[in-house]
Design brief:
Blueprint: E1 2-8, E2 14-36, E3 39-61, E4 69-92, E5 98-106, E6 109-124, E7 130-148, E8 151-159, E9 163-172, E10 178-179, E11 189-198, E12 216-223
Antiparallel strand pairs: 1-2, 2-3, 3-4, 4-5, 4-6, 5-8, 6-7, 7-10, 8-9, 9-11, 11-12
């Protein structure tokens, strides 16, 4: 993201603030599963790694006073193992329909992290970047932890020759999220999803009836966002 904000500080001057951030998470995994009669279980494990970079640049705008521009930046690199698990059970009805019950869990991750911080005065160059004038404070390679929350879900599907219907609910415990023992503006989230598919064609439907061979689908979901804004 890149967000620019212009404001007026009473008794001071106009202030231009630039917020920038980038980063993401990547996973390398190995997975396996096993089926015993109508019961199936699967596991996925591997390594999570990524980065989180963000900065704030302040620029006071004045006709009479010259202020140094400032930049406060934090760069974090993190990595660690993860474990996900799932299971499902198949139920066959007398009318040859299939009811499938499922549950899964993405367990909490405790990632090892290293963080760099810098507070500096800067000046902009002619290429849209900036150059350092003076470093006010700087720390490098500070060790810490990043905790990613656990996610749990349960659901089911019903399917026969013409109809597929399913629903599930997913919960993520964002209250446990920590970045160097600090909370963030996040909250526990829960999402409900449901969807259906209808396939009208029968065994004796002529191929010329095109619309009978179309699979009609619809679905919806409802839930709370994990980002917490304005309480």
């Amino acid at each position: 993201y890149k967000v620019e904000k212009n404001s007026r500080l009473n008794g001071v001057d106009s202030l231009n603030t630039l917020y920038e951030g980038s980063g993401g998470v990547t996973q390398a995994n190995i997975s396996t599963g096993i089926k015993i009669k109508n019961f199936s279980v699967g596991l996925s494990t591997g390594y999570t790694f990524g980065s989180k970079d963000y900065s704030t640049q302040l620029n006071f705008i004045s006709d009479s006073v010259i202020y140094y521009k400032s930049n406060t930046a934090t760069k974090t690199r993190f990595g660690g193992t993860f474990l996900n698990a799932g299971m499902q059970y198949d139920i066959f009805t007398k009318k040859k329909a299939l009811i499938r019950l499922g549950a899964y869990a993405n367990f909490q991750q405790n990632l090892n992290a290293r963080r760099d911080n810098i507070n500096e005065t800067i000046n902009y160059d002619g290429n849209g970047g900036f150059i350092n004038i003076d470093t006010v404070s700087s720390t490098a390679d500070v060790k810490g932890k990043v905790k990613l929350p656990a996610t749990y879900g349960i659901g089911f599907t019903y399917s026969d020759k013409h109809l597929v219907f399913g629903a599930d609910v997913e919960m993520t415990n964002w209250d446990t999220y920590r970045y160097y023992d600090q909370k963030d503006l996040v909250q526990n989230s829960i999402t409900f999803r449901t969807g259906a598919q209808y396939y009208p064609a029968k065994d004796n439907t002529p191929a010329s009836k095109y619309w009978s061979f179309v699979k009609y689908r619809a679905g919806l979901y409802y839930g709370s966002d994990y980002v917490k804004l304005d309480d």
